[in-house]
Design goal:
This protein has an 8-stranded mixed sheet with strand order 5-21-17-20-19-18-9-10, sandwiched between helices. The chain is α+β, with helices and mostly antiparallel strands and about 675 residues long.
């Protein structure tokens, strides 16, 4: 579909009855697919869903409503080939795959506006249902390749400067094109040091806080002024109706899983190394928040933040800086913590000369670890990781991909397609075919009753049948997504990307991670905010998360709102659901899987993406121990083509991403965009 090579059943029958790798998709599978295709393997990537990314996907608003309806009904997939078992030979055995996705449960959605007013309202720019088989974007799904806007400009692959960046450099100086490499960057900002002017928000990762562009000119600093002046912040938020949300549904890109990218995390390193970063743009998380004594407040992170903070006294500022400096090289001072290795990090903080407010900031907003379960060493490691990521892009350690986390699997899918990978959506697989003599899997049987041979098979956990997973014990993640009319902490700037950790509200409950996205992230319509809440499950998602939602937001309809609730952001629409967390499950826990079948887990509850990247690299190295994992692609001018390969190679390399909606002038001027480039 779109920029990726796609196929239907006839194409498979003619062209691809034997391949090297066959996989069903999520983020780890997409990374493995890209790595395999890049190393010269033939890759077939099939999925019974009609969208890319599995549980890592992003949806438009109408697409999410379709997803909700589908998961509330939980109907079995139609079996187009009921006699597929006849295709299994005497010396073979079938390992059936599940025909129903059981990873999503307890889906509940709520509208806090007038739903009747939305009847007959059509989504602006919505495409008609596509008759083409396997096309993404059906049922309102909006993957990157399907996002359209009359004013959008395409980004050509491999260009030094994207047209969008050239055309809007003055309006949005912070958004830089992928691939720009500084000639003489300033040294990377050390954690805890004062940032360069502009917070480094427009700096390309790996190029310091104020790099020069490839042409030798100074990179423009991020915009220091926001479109929305301070007086607007004091005004009442604009009234947004449900019909407006429906009409502007394609402005929303709503992630099923909520994560941020650590600026020195494994995923950023992989994006830079493999040059997959050229397919995406990123925005800095602009602030870290804390919830204390019933109020939301901003946490000072960098040295500049600490000394500019009005919340802390001078004594507290010195206490905090001294402790953070210790955390940066705590391994060099074991005498400071070794007596508390068996204690929790919260208990260790109490032994340091820190006030209760500083302990709260460090525990919940910097280390972001459990108050009752995390050890001293775990807390110190988490604090050090946070501090090491400061200053690479800006005043916080985090990046967020424009158009949502669902862009990341698609970026790796695009790299796979460029190197010849084949993608088939709405293409169900009935079973794995086991060769009894060798004990290895030799083929799959699809819903057309077609056998497809392969050497290796990578399967997402959700596709495995109950009999295969009998001995597996799963955890669950509680998720909520809210559309609100204002930020949890209003400031002069409306365009803020915030992360907030709410401590457990009761004994036995988990802390809740809240990520609030503004419209310049291209995930919601103007004058609205998209809020993601995530925590490990103890009950249903609504039972776990609604108490936190009630603390932070106004859930009443306009007429029922009481005076004390008026200051809180109003929730316009909400959905709660539980998602299976299959991370950490050993392969030996699955029953009867051959050695050449590898299982990838779905999303985990952690804030970063390290688990998915580690899993992808581990599986790739097991299959190909001598191959490099996701090496940089060659420069187009360095590629030498054989005559018979020239035509297909050219058609593959000419695949380019579809156009995406540009942010409005009000949104784009807020800047804070960042492009990931090589160091």
């Amino acid at each position: 579909g779109s920029s990726k090579n796609s196929c239907n059943g006839d194409y498979l029958g003619q062209r691809l009855l034997e391949t090297s790798r066959c996989r069903l998709q999520g983020l780890p599978e997409s990374i493995i697919a890209a790595a395999c295709a890049r190393s010269g393997q033939r890759v077939l990537h099939v999925d019974s869903r009609n969208y890319y990314g599995g549980n890592w996907a992003s949806f438009s608003f109408s697409g999410l409503l379709s997803w909700i309806k589908e998961n509330q009904q939980k109907t079995d997939l139609s079996d187009e080939c009921e006699d597929w078992r006849k295709l299994i030979l005497e010396d073979e055995e079938a390992i059936p795959l599940s025909s129903k996705d059981k990873t999503i449960q307890h889906v509940e959605d709520f509208c806090f506006g007038d739903q009747d007013s939305a009847e007959g309202v059509e989504e602006v720019g919505a495409l008609p249902k596509l008759p083409a088989f396997g096309a993404p974007g059906a049922q309102g799904v909006s993957p990157a390749s399907e996002k359209e806007n009359p004013t959008a400009e395409g980004i050509s692959l491999g260009s030094e400067q994207s047209p969008a960046a050239e055309g809007s450099e003055k309006e949005n100086p912070a958004a830089e094109s992928p691939g720009e490499e500084p000639q003489s960057p300033e040294p990377e900002q050390a954690p805890g040091t004062e940032p360069a002017p502009g917070d480094g928000a427009g700096a390309a990762p790996g190029s310091g806080a104020a790099p020069s562009t490839a042409s030798g000119e100074s990179a423009p600093e991020p915009a220091k002024t926001e479109t929305a002046p301070s007086e607007n912040a004091a005004q009442e938020p604009k009234k947004i109706t449900y019909s407006q949300i429906v009409r502007e549904g394609r402005r929303f890109n709503i992630d099923l899983v909520s994560k941020l990218l650590y600026s020195r995390g494994l995923l950023i390193d992989l994006l830079i190394k493999s040059n997959v970063s050229r397919y995406a743009e990123f925005k800095n998380a602009t602030r870290v928040l804390a919830f204390r004594e019933g109020k939301v407040e901003q946490v000072p992170c960098s040295r500049a933040d600490v000394f500019n903070s009005r919340q802390l006294s001078m004594v507290e500022k010195r206490m905090l800086m001294k402790f953070l400096t210790f955390c940066l090289d705590y391994e060099q001072h074991p005498e400071e913590y070794q007596d508390y290795e068996s204690s929790t990090f919260a208990q260790f903080l109490q032994t340091r000369k820190l006030t209760p407010s500083l302990q709260h900031f460090i525990l919940h907003s910097i280390a972001m670890v459990s108050e009752t379960e995390s050890s001293t060493l775990e807390g110190l490691q988490a604090t050090k990781k946070f501090l090491q990521c400061l200053g690479r892009y800006g005043n916080t350690p985090f990046l967020f991909p424009l158009y949502g986390q669902g862009e990341i699997p698609q970026c790796f899918c695009r790299l796979c397609a460029v190197f010849g990978g084949i993608y088939c959506l709405r293409h169900a697989v009935r079973c794995l075919v086991l060769d009894r003599a060798s004990g290895r899997c030799k083929a799959i049987v699809d819903h057309f009753g077609q056998r497809i041979n392969a050497n290796y098979f990578i399967v997402e956990d959700s596709y495995l049948s109950e009999s295969t997973c009998t001995n597996v014990c799963y955890r669950q993640i509680s998720r909520a997504v809210l559309i609100t009319d204002q930020s949890v902490l209003n400031t002069d700037s409306e365009q803020q990307v915030s992360i907030l950790t709410v401590p457990p509200l009761a004994v036995g409950r988990a802390a809740v991670c809240v990520i609030e996205l503004c419209s310049s992230t291209m995930t919601c319509m103007k004058d609205s905010y998209l809020v993601h809440l995530t925590c490990p499950s103890t009950k249903t998602a609504r039972e776990d998360l609604e108490p936190v939602v009630q603390k932070l937001f106004n859930l009443n309809t306009e007429k029922e709102t009481e005076n004390e609730e008026l200051e809180k952001p109003r929730v316009l629409w909400a959905v709660y659901f539980n998602m299976r967390d299959s991370s950490g499950v050993e392969k030996s826990s699955y029953t009867g899987l051959p050695s050449n079948v590898y299982v990838c887990s779905g999303p985990d509850s952690a804030l970063g993406n390290d688990c998915a990247v580690k899993q992808a690299e581990t599986i790739f190295r097991e299959m190909f121990p001598t191959e490099e994992f996701c090496p940089p692609p060659p420069n187009p001018e360095d590629i030498i083509y054989d005559e018979d390969e020239l035509e297909p190679e050219e058609s593959a390399l000419n695949n380019s991403p579809e156009t995406k909606p540009e942010s409005s002038a009000e949104e784009s001027s807020s800047g804070d965009g960042a492009a990931v480039t090589k160091e």
